[in-house]
Every structure is written in C-alpha cells, then in structure tokens.
Amino acid sequence: MLEQLNNTFAIPDHVIFQTGAGDRPVAVLQNQYGQATISIYGGHVLTYTPNGQTPVLWVSKHAKYENGIAIRGGVPIIFPWFGSHPSDSTKPSHGFARRTDWHVQHTNQHANGSTEICLALTPTEFTQSLWAHDFVLQVTVILGAKLEIAMIWQNLSDTPMSVTNALHTYFAVADSTQVTIKGLENIPYLDQLAAMQRQQSAKPIQISAEVDRIYLESAAQIEIIDPGLARTIHITKQGSQSTVVWNPWIAKSARMSDFGDLEYREMVCVEAANIDDATVTLAPNDSHETRQIISVSPLNAG
Ligand code: TA6
User: Fold this and answer.
1) What does the domain layout of the chain look like in residue ranges?
2) Residue 81 and residue 158: Cα distance in Å, rounded?
3) Catalytic residue chosen out of the listed positions 168, 263, 266, 288
4) How many angstroms separate the alpha carbon of residue 269 from the centre of ligand 1?
5) Omega before 160 within 30 of 0, i.e. cis
6) What is the mean pLDDT of residues 242-263?
7) Which ligand 1 atom is the nearest neighbour of the CA of 92?
8) CB distance 258 to ligand 1 below 6 Å
9) Is 44 a catalytic residue?
C-alpha cells in the first residue's frame, strides 16, 4: 500500500507516505513552513509543527490505532453527527468518519511553498449500516504559513441530508490550568455539563474544572494564550456556526482508557462545528465546507 501511495502521490521533499503509529499509513507533509502528518485512517490530522515551534496539536500517549476506534488527539473528523446519535444510542459517538479507512485523492505543491493533501470518504457497507445516505466527504489539509484543515461534504442522495459536524481539534499546551482562551467572551453557550443550560460569560476562559461548552455563534478569532510555551495559538474558521471548548479534567480523564490520568493538563479542544440549531441540511447535490485555520505567534510578539 505504501509503495502504491508513494508512486501515485509522493512529492519529493514535500510529501511522503510512511508507516506511522499503530502501523498505520500516514502522509508526512514538510516544507519551508513546518511539518504535518495525516493518518489515512480517519482522514485524521495527527501532528502539526511549524518550523522553530513545538507541536501545536496533541495526541494521547494512550491513543489506540485500531479499526473502529477514534484516535485520541489531533483533529478527529466528526461526521455525520456530533455527540450521541440523535435517536439510536447504539451508534458510535461523534459518527463514523473518524472510525474507518479513507483514501487519498490528491497531493499538490503550491507556488507559495505550501503543501496540500486531500483525502476522501465515500459510502461503504460500514457507513451505510449506520447512515443510509449517499455522500462524498473530503478533508483537505494545506501546510503553509498557517495550517488549514477543511472538511467538505456533498449530498449525493436524491433527498435532503442533515449533518452536524466538527473539526474536533486537540491543541497542545504547557499546562491547561495556566492558559487563557480569548474570543468567546459574551457569546452564549450550552453547558454540556449542566443539562445544556444556556450561559454566557464576559471573561476569557480559564480551566480549573471540566469544561464542555457549545458556543452558539461563529466566533471570528480565538486565541489560546499559553505562557508555559510562550506562544499564542490563533484559530479562525469558516463554515461553522458553533464552537466547542472541551477539557475533560480529572474524573473524565480517569474514565477514558485512551487518555492518561494527567493528560488533561497537556491539552484543550477548540472545535469548529455545526451543532443543534446550526445543523447543516443540504438539498441533493449541494455541499458544505467547514474550515479551521491555525497559526502560532510568540507570546511577546506585538
Ligand atoms: O467535543 C466535546 C465532546 O463532545 C465531549 O463531550 C467529550 O465526549 C469529547 O467530545 C470526546 O468525545 P469522544 O467520543 O472522542 O470520547
């Protein structure tokens, strides 16, 4: 498989396919801006490291790389439903896209030095058993001065198709109890820890307990200010009306077998999503794109 992937899609000095964690094939993108790795399984960005920086995305040391299980960390692709299935609790949490093999559609090296890969998921027996729709779902990753991750899906059925989705991004931080998340002040959110009560706060987010919030309006620019790593992570998005902020804290971390008991200190999730009232309903042949754009600046930068 690796030979075929490299023969078809490798780009000398920029894209190569290797065996990654869990003996699964990954694409390694590198260029003047940095490096990123993407698992073919799940269409799942695993790492992003700008030149001169430490990794910007976080993956658990306890992550599992087994069929049917989502990789804990990076950017899980949440499709075609966010959270529990709306009517059938036996169906997998956060849908099926992150739990199955995808295929590479194309790779590209742009004149500005950025490097692109596109992976796709089309219906299989597995997906049809969970969701009887005809669709194509693509993830395009562009490694440039920023990292761009776009999930694009098209309704190939002859009936309307409703989806809730997320780019469920796990960001690496020095210590989650020391970071400040700015950009969501005064925006209403549903508190998943308090029966989805509608709340809002005038203050930036700081983490001292489990946080699991669905913000209800598209936020232009979010910053994760990380004094421990002396950097700010800048997050913008398109095609997303919901933003999710999550840290499992102590008790939930202990309950997850693929999450170290103390790993809650190393990460925070800030997710570009469309959830609840922001469900995306597509007519036949229509498509929708959700894009998250990530960059980093030194903390002492002006
Ligand atoms: O995005 C936040 C959330 O919905 C949390 O409620 C938590 O369940 C998290 O996703 C992880 O879900 P997972 O199915 O990956 O364990």
Assistant:
1) 2-172+248-261+274-298
2) 20
3) 168
4) 9
5) no
6) 98
7) 14
8) no
9) no
Which pTM does this prediction carry? 0.98
* DSSP 8-class letter at 176: G
Asked whether 35 lines ligand 1 (CB < 6 A), one says no
Higher-scoring residue by pLDDT: 300, 99: 99
- R_g over Cα of the chain: 18
Contact 210, 252 (CB under 8 A): yes
Query: What is the per-residue pLDDT across 94-132, written as a single tens digit (0 to 9) for each?
Result: 999 999 999 999 999 999 999 999 999 999 999 999 999
> Looking at ligand 1, which residue's alpha carbon is closest to its atom 2?
246
Dig out the tokens for 155 from the structure: 């309704």
Give the mean pLDDT of 78-87: 97
Q: Is the dihedral of CA 218, 232, 258, 22 positive or negative?
A: positive
- CATH 2.30.30.140 assigned to 2-172+248-261+274-298: no
**Which of 214, 246, 271, when mutated, tests ligand 1's pocket best, judged by the most ligand atoms within 8 Å of its CB?**
246
Decide whether any atom of ligand 1 lies within 6 Å of the 205 Cβ.
no
Can you tell me the distance from the alpha carbon of 171 to that of 302, in angstroms, rounded to the nearest whole number? 23
Q: What is the mean pLDDT of residues 201-225?
A: 94
% of the chain residues with pLDDT over 70:
99
Q: Is the pLDDT assigned to residue 301 strictly greater than 80? A: no
Task: Identify whether the C-beta of residue 213 lies closer than 8 Å to the C-beta of residue 189.
Answer: yes
Residue nearest ligand 1's atom 13 by CA = 93
**Residue 198: other Cβ atoms inside 10 A:** 11
